[in-house]
Amino acid sequence: xxxxxxxxxxxxxxxxxxxxxxxxxxxxxxxxxxxxxxxxxxxxxxxxxxxxxxxxxxxxxxxxxxxxxxxxxxxxxxxxxxxxxxxxxxxxxxxxxxxxxxxxxxxxxxxxxxxxxxxxxxxxxxxxxxxxxxxxxxxxxxxxxxxxxxxxxxxxxxxxxxxxxxxxxxxxxxxxxxxxxxxxxxxxxxxxxxxxxxxxxxxxxxxxxxxxxxxxxxxxxxxxxxxx
Length: 228
Description:
- Pfam families: Arv1.
- This protein is mainly α and 228 residues long.
- It has helices spanning 46-54, 58-67, 73-93, 100-131, 137-146, 154-159, 164-187, 191-222; strands spanning 5-6, 13-14, 18-22, 25-28.
- It contains eight helices and four strands.
- It has a two-stranded antiparallel ribbon with strand order 1-2. It has a two-stranded antiparallel ribbon with strand order 3-4.
């Protein structure tokens, strides 16, 4: 059980989200700094929280990052990774027949994305910690992973036959906005500075991807082949 929370309006640390006055009587706590309700999202449906997160509201991000306990965050990371890998693999293999070579290429795509995402996370965490010494690195990394949910939007776009270049542009823009909000929530830094950090990290990551992308292309031919 979590022992500390934050006010979703001002980010001030709080000890509790609600007070219990009886077995059936709860009252939401108020922030000691801004006097707003600490976290009204705890009374709302998850769908409302998700909609506000899609709308890039800081309150929704503070609720998800600080006030919602996730026991095994690595499961979310694996889920997001597999979704991203499946979308990339499907887009590259459209029109190709099934076989052992395709399976090999999917595994290589997963490894490629693990390295790519690790580079992005490391760059963002390093750049943020250069200026915000009090920022918790582990918490920031977890927040960045949690706010990578936007990448999953590329999968239905591929399944529905949408134009991949347009879908990729929209998903990337949404992903970067989510990463900026995650950095703002955890570090307390301003929008402009965090946007520069995220954009710089993304550009460096893409440079590394371009440098390493021939490995994926070579795997189309170097992977295990089925024999008669």
